[in-house]
Write a structure and sequence with these properties.
The structure is a single chain. This protein is of the alpha+beta class. Helices cover 25% and strands 23% of the residues. The chain contains 13 helices and 18 strands. The chain has a seven-stranded mixed β-sheet, sandwiched between helices. The longest helix has 18 residues. The protein is globular and about 80 Å long. The two termini are 38 Å apart.
């Protein structure tokens, strides 16, 4: 049993803890079912007459589709139907449309082009999984290869091949090429600083790798509704997006969620349910569409790769006068949630510090890579890695105590953030102080006397 407790000595009378579960061991409500094997996952539910759906996927990073011949696939014993984009009522994924971000840019099934290796082209529905896999391999696709861009800076170069129909390899934010933050004057800040430091940080795409792969089973009901058993993280999001793609009223669908089987953000994209519903409607039989492990690793959304340049103007005493940040966030071939994540990333800069001059350009860049999307704290986590690495490197270069360097610049109650919001209830100063105490890290009395509410220092 853990014995830690909530320290309520800070802000007495204003912050009551009431946090009975912090520091206590709380059993998971589903733990007993998991460890005894009684939990039912999507594939565990027996469904008579089940059909299996498998995808024919692009073998190219970027190509024009000259033709698709499904005759050999249809000749495989057990194959019931092959679906192409002409079978999808509204052939556009709509994951951002519901929160007002457009345009829709990703087809459910490819039409005349493919923008990444693994993009779905047509769906094979068969009596067995083996027949569906064999038939998907027999679909004959004739490609005309097009130049691919696989790096964010190559994609933004003036001579880069344009891969998006709107004419640019970046998302457009209210007419701008990126999401921008401007606060103070960074040029003046750099000119006044004793030192200027500039470093670049790079992350790679990160796959969620859930234990249960992404998937669903769709059953036509006697009243004409479709029951969708899914391991989605977002049942209502799945309902609304699937209804839009099927061009059906939402009440004609029933989404049954439950055990997610590991999600971490990767199961909010609604990639399998719409086409499985189309297959169920076309055959009037239940259809299962589950990613194989290889598909999960290759074509499910990743955390975006990011390249982040941070330039700081700093005085010898550790006061940061200016911070300029350029983020290049790789959306891959389609938007999914990355334009939204890029906005979060821009607003998160310059980190939890009060800096009088801030300049941020956050680019959502399209490349011919697997699309990226949501993953735990997307738009923030990699930025924090870059900013805190930057803080450590500057502290080392100037011979400063890294925690005192952070305390000197930490935002405090009443400070105005670069996006013009006044900070309240920050408690960052107290958290650093308590961390220093817990780890035996030395702090001078000046820094131990600081407080988040200004004017309360000893």
């Amino acid at each position: 049993m853990t014995t830690s407790h909530v320290d309520d000595s800070y802000f007495p009378g204003t912050r009551t803890s009431g946090l009975g579960v912090v520091g206590a061991t709380v059993p998971r409500s589903d733990a007993r079912g998991h460890v005894t094997g009684r939990t039912q996952f999507v594939e565990d539910v027996p469904v008579p007459g089940l059909l299996h759906l498998k995808m024919c996927r692009s073998t190219r990073h970027h190509a024009r589709i000259r033709s698709v011949d499904v005759s050999a696939a249809l000749a495989v014993p057990g194959v019931v139907r092959v679906l192409t984009h002409t079978d999808i009522p509204a052939n556009w994924y709509t994951v951002l449309r519901l929160i007002g971000v457009e345009p829709n840019d990703e087809p459910v099934l490819a039409e005349d082009r493919v923008l990444y290796r693994g993009e779905p082209i047509c769906a094979v529905v068969a009596e067995s999984e083996a027949a569906a896999i064999e038939a998907a391999d027999r679909v004959l696709v004739v490609y005309e290869d097009l130049p691919a861009v696989l790096d964010v800076e190559e994609a933004l170069a003036p001579d880069a091949p344009v891969i998006k129909p709107h004419g640019a390899n970046h998302f457009v934010y209210e007419g701008h090429h990126c999401r921008r933050v401007r606060f103070g004057d960074v040029a003046e800040g750099f000119a006044a600083a004793d030192h200027v430091f500039e470093w670049t940080y790079q992350s790679a795409p990160i796959e969620h790798a859930p234990t249960e792969t992404t998937g669903c089973v769709v059953e036509p009901q006697p009243d004409g509704r479709l029951r969708i058993r899914s391991d989605t993280q977002a049942c209502f999001f799945t309902l609304d997006n699937t209804a839009l793609i099927l061009d059906r009223p939402p009440h004609r669908l029933q989404v049954v969620g439950g055990t997610v089987g590991g999600g971490f953000g990767g199961k909010v994209d609604v990639m399998v349910e719409p086409v499985a519903c189309v297959a169920a409607l076309a055959t009037d039989r239940p259809v299962k569409y589950m990613y194989s492990r290889a598909e999960e690793m290759q074509v499910s959304s990743t955390r975006a790769a990011e390249r982040i340049r941070v330039k700081d103007g700093v005085n010898a005493d550790g006061t940061i006068l200016a911070r300029q940040v350029t983020l290049l966030i790789d959306a891959g071939a389609y938007s999914r949630h990355t334009p939204y994540g890029t906005t979060k990333a821009a607003a998160h800069m310059p980190g939890p510090y009060t800096i009088p001059n801030v300049w941020v350009d956050a680019h959502c860049v399209y490349t011919n890579r697997t699309p990226s999307s949501a993953m735990r704290g997307f738009g923030v986590t990699i930025g924090d890695f870059a900013l805190e690495s930057q803080m450590d490197r500057i502290a080392e270069a100037l011979g400063l105590n890294p925690l005192e360097f952070r305390l000197k610049n930490a935002y405090r109650d009443g400070d105005v953030r670069p996006y013009r919001k006044k900070a309240e209830g920050t408690a960052l100063v107290e958290t650093i102080q308590r961390s220093a105490t817990a780890t035996g890290h030395p702090l001078e009395d000046t820094y131990r006397a600081l407080s988040s509410p200004r004017g309360e220092e000893a």
